[in-house]
Structure formats: structure tokens, C-alpha cells
Amino acid sequence: MRLQPLALALSLTLPVEGAATWTEPAHRHHQIGSLQPNNGYPILRWLRDTAVEVFFGKRLRDDGLDIPETDPDIAMRHQDDIVLRFNATTFEEKRILAEITREFQGLDIWTISHEYVDAKLLNAKEYLPWLLKKLPDSMKKPEILIYDLPSAIWATFPEKTSTGFSSSSLGVRTSREGMGNLFFKDYQRLSVVASWMRLLEAMFPSLTEMTSIGKSFEGRDIHALRVGARNEDEEEGSSRKTILVTGGLHGREWISTSTVTYLMWSMITAYGKDSMVTKLLDKFDIIFIPILNPDGYEYTWQKDRLWRKSRQATNTEHCPGMDLDHAFGYEWATNNNAGPCSESYGGDSPFHAVEASELAHWARNQTTQHDVKFVGFLDLHSYSQQILFPYSYTCATQPPNLENLMELGVGLAKAIRLSSGETYTVTSACEGAVAYRSKEDNSRMEGGGGSAIDWFYHELGAKYSYQIKLRDTGSYGFLLPADHIVPTGEEVLNALKYFGDFLLGNNGIEKGSFERPENTPSPQSPPADQWRDLRRHR
């Protein structure tokens, strides 16, 4: 029996340090360095770590794989690169930029909007003059978003990278103490996320169930945590409406993984305390998959912080990896003829990417063998603060429930704005990939076929499927500082509550269903009935 070690572990995993509160920086320019908790009481910390090791095993490693230390030169590989913002508003400007990205792999598109395109330029000293010669006069003065990439990269890492278990990483506290929870002070490695999910399952066995939906190309488990409350009169194995929340499809988008972990923790610890959360978990299961691309995610900690794709071998030896969000079977390769060296390469055939295939197989099996009905799908990414709905593969075809998708999408954006003051735009996912469009052409910088939201929407009937691109809008890009983990998590948590309330048939209107996190600034204090204000603007 391991109940005594477990009890000891659980009693000791509560942080002994004083809970620090998060405050929004006065400005949003990049700050080098990261917040670190003090050492507290070394004896208690040692006791906690020892207790956790007794129950979970010493220095837990994901699936028994060796976990190399971070390469000390991980940031210097980008020392000559810069991130640029191009003003690209006209048809001709976007056509020219799209052609350049097809012929030159050194221009890595980070995000696309109607007004601008952000891209990382390889070896700027060598290639910037060449690039500017190819651009029209209106684009010859791009804004430099990030000049010192090595410093920006290192600022996203904890001060001291750890591959083992630590009590400061595994604190589990109540949902109103998120800003003092040390797990969310920093981005966490794959092994720590997996161990923390095991701890949540151990602490809340009646509410959670951890599983693996399959294996990655390199053999790592793709972990999932099912969260939901079963009523006593509910038959075991009965049909259950389910919401799926995923993150980490792209390795470098660390904030997506941290946000999924924040959501699962907040929902679990708020059950029985928050009426909206309690109602939602009584009626639905929510399945959280924080890292769908574990190989790519771990590679960003080991070798290349800005790696996007999986690590699967391709037919081009020096260009490994596939873009999981272009690897699903619905309208695969539509508007996408990218080769293996492209960041948007979705494989040689539908579901060629192992991780996409594993997710689809698991989801199909859930519906056919376990009577699960997926009613909603939220796929978290970064960056640009957008809420995108199907279809991604084309703008020429509209989903049958377009009006409902728009209505809920706008509601999610307003729930976020009332929570934090941040603005998220709402549009079709195809708009986020279109480089330029005319009656004769619909060319893209990034292919739109094979996306996860299109597949879940069309093939599994998850009629409320969204891709949410999280913070920010370009100041940091994929290198969002860790002090944005909690506020990003809070605003998406409020969106998730709105999402659930909408699915419950209340159209997102639930009095008192969320509270503002303390010390989170906003343009103005929201009214007592915040959903009423939201309803007024719909």
C-alpha cells in the first residue's frame, strides 16, 4: 500500500513560500531575466521532494526516455536572425511576399493579418539587403520587432532549467491562488507537465482520469486528462457530451501548453466552489491535451527554441518534421503544395504525421467504442489574439452553422475583453492563412488544408470548433514572457466558461459566472452582472 507516502506527498506539495501576486508590467517591452521564488525552507523542500519521489519515482522521465539537458548554445543559433513586421495591405504587396516565401526558406512566417505579416529572417546581415531589393518601395522599411533574439529566447527559460521533479513546480492550490502557484511562474518541460498531471489525478480521483491517446514519432506518450463529475444516478459508460481542448501542436508555442494546464487546474480546483464550473463539469467531460507534439516541444527545450513542426523523418534528410495542423485528413493539401523543408509541410499523405493520426484514431474510437459525443473543440495556439472558426482550407465554402459560430466566437472575445481588457478578433480560419486573394487566385503563405478544427468540425461533428491564437500581437511573438502565463490563462478560462454556458443553452449568459482576478488591470471595472453587459453588445 502506498497510501501513506501519497498522503505525505500531497500534504507537502503545498508551497511553503509566500504567494507572490502578479501585476501587469508598466510597459510591454522585453525584459531580460525571469522571476524566481526564494528558497523558502530547504528542509521542508527536501521532505516534499523526497515524498513525491517515493510515490512517483525519482526524477520522473516521460515514458522512460532520457531527457538531455538544454544545449547552452540553444539561443545563439539565432544570433544573426531578426523578426520583422512588413506592412502588407494590398493585393500586390502580399503576392510579392508570398512568392518570396516560396523560393526562400530563410523567411519564416510567424503570423499573418490583414494589415501586416511578421516573419523571422535568417542571417539578416546577409539576406536583408537581398530581401529589400525584391520588395516594392512601400515595404522597404519593415519594423524590427525583435532585434536581439538570443536574449529574447533565454528570457522565456527558467533561470535554472531542471529536468527532474521539484516541489516548486508541482504545487496544487485553490483556483483563486493561481497567481501565487509556482507551477505557473515559469514554462515547464514535458516531464514536469506529465508528472503534474499525474499528481492532479492522484489528488482528485473522482473528478479526473489521466490517459495516453497514443505515442509520438519518437515514442513519447501524448498525455490527456479527462475532467468531469459523474452523478450517482448516471450509468457507467453512458453517453457523455465532451469538449476537447488541445495545445502544443507547434513546439515553439509554449504559452498554448501553459494555458491548457492552467485551464485544467482551474476547472478541477474550482469544482464545487464556482457555480458555472460546477454546472459545466456536471454536464460535460472536458478532455485536456496540453502537448500534442511532445517531440517538437521537447526539442524546443533541448536544441531550438523556435522549432515549429514535429520531429518525424521525411524524405528529405536535412528537413525533418511535419506541421500537425496541416496533417489531418479533411481537405488535406488543399491550397498547400509545400515541401518537407517548409514550416507548413503536412506530410506526403493525409495523417502521415504520427501525432495527428494518433489523435484522430483515438477520437474516432471514443465516439464508436465509448459513446462519446464531441460537441466542442478548442485548439490553442499563438500568437496574434484571434478566434478562428472553420473552414481553414478555403474561404469559398461556408460552414452550415456559420451564424452560430460567429455568435459564439464574438461572445468568447467579449468574455476575454471583460476579463482582462485584451482584444481578440474573430474571423474565419481561412482568413488567417490567405496571403492574397482575387477572383482568379487564392494563394497562401501558409496552406489551409488538413487543419485540426476542420477535421473535428466536419468528420466528428464538433460543430463548435475554434482555433484560438493567444497573446500577444507581436511585441514578443512566440517568445512571450512567463509573467503572461497566469493572465493569459485567466482570460481563456473565462472564455471557456462562456463556451460551456453557451453549450448548456444559456447563450453564454450566467450571472456571476466569473470574477476578475485580483490585481489584473482593465480599462474599467465591469458591472456586477458581467454577462448582462456582454449581452447588451451582441
UniProtKB/TrEMBL annotation:
InterPro entries: CARBOXYPEPT_ZN_1, Peptidase_M14. Residues 1-18 form the signal peptide. Residues 510-538 are annotated as: Disordered. It is found in: Secreted; Vacuole. The keyword Transcription does not apply. Coiled coil: none annotated. Residues 186-503 form the Peptidase M14 domain. Keywords: Cell wall biogenesis/degradation, Disulfide bond, Metal-binding, Secreted, Signal, Vacuole, Zinc. Gene3D superfamilies: Zn peptidases (3.40.630.10). Pfam families: Peptidase_M14 (PF00246). GO terms for molecular function: metallocarboxypeptidase activity; zinc ion binding. Its cofactor is Zn(2+). GO terms for cellular component: extracellular region; vacuole. Belongs to the peptidase M14 family. This is Inactive metallocarboxypeptidase ECM14. It comes from Triangularia setosa.
